[in-house]
Automatic annotation (TrEMBL):
Protein's pathway: Carbohydrate biosynthesis; gluconeogenesis
Family listed: Belongs to the iron-sulfur dependent L-serine dehydratase family.
The organism's place on the tree of life at top rank: Bacteria
Residue ranges occupied by any Serine dehydratase beta chain domain in the UniProt entry: 7-134
Name this protein carries in UniProt: L-serine deaminase
Species the sequence originates in: Jeotgalibaca ciconiae
Length: 226
């Protein structure tokens, strides 16, 4: 429990439109995380529901919540129940699929979100763990799949390993220690000349840290999910 919920507000959940912190607020956070990974407005959205999500998404408002997160709405936004109409007005194709197979990540509140626009696509699988909190389990970026199994915030950093003085895991720990920040964990996924570094964080980094990371010569992309 201590590793999952950091405060009483993680258990109670946020102020929200909808009947359930797990099926509404958590679903919105899943959609928001997918949108942050995509970094632009999707023109096609496919949501695959598993287990409890597949059985109850209509009655619990999961559809409008997860899509609202993708559209950038907050949990208390009065427009949240109208997110499907908003997507239609923006010519966004939306498909919801009720999967009959068990959750691929062994959690009843699981969704796989595929966001597409032209030749760009990301896929994110995550679960709503209660109180509006989520876990991201599997992420596909640049056609490269990564098993994350991490709680927010997460920092995805794409670095070119052909560049001189690229940061190793030790270097990333030292970078944050310099800013008096303790990382929870680091995972590095490598394919050819590209590495995705995933930083597991307790709180979002400061604007100063974000600015310094973006200025590193070998960093091609940096995506904060919070």
């Amino acid at each position: 429990m201590a590793d999952t919920f950091r405060s009483v507000f993680d258990i109670i959940g946020p102020i929200m439109v909808g009947p359930s912190s797990s099926h509404t607020a958590g679903a919105l956070t899943l959609g928001k995380a997918a949108s942050q990974l995509f970094q632009m407005q999707a023109k096609k959205v496919t949501i695959q529901y598993y287990e409890s999500f597949a059985e109850t998404h209509l009655g619990h408002g999961t559809d409008f919540a997860i899509l609202g997160g993708i559209l950038g709405l907050s949990t208390e936004d009065p427009m949240l129940p109208h997110s499907l109409k908003m997507a239609k007005s923006q010519n966004i194709e939306v498909n919801f699929i009720e999967e009959t197979d068990p959750s691929p990540v062994n959690h009843p509140n699981t969704a796989t979100m595929t966001l597409e626009r032209n030749d760009r696509r990301i896929i994110a699988t995550g679960c709503s763990i209660g109180g509006g909190s989520i876990q991201l389990n599997v992420v596909e970026l640049d056609n490269y799949q990564m098993t994350i199994d991490g709680y927010l915030p997460l920092y995805f950093i794409k670095q070119n390993n052909l560049h001189r003085n690229i940061y190793t895991m030790t270097d990333w720990y030292a970078f944050f220690e310099k800013h008096s920040y303790q990382l929870s964990d680091i995972r590095i996924f490598q394919e050819n000349e590209v590495e995705w570094v995933v930083l597991y964080m307790e709180t979002p980094p400061s604007e100063k840290m974000i600015s310094e990371i973006n200025e590193l010569a070998f960093v091609e992309e940096a995506i904060l999910i919070s």
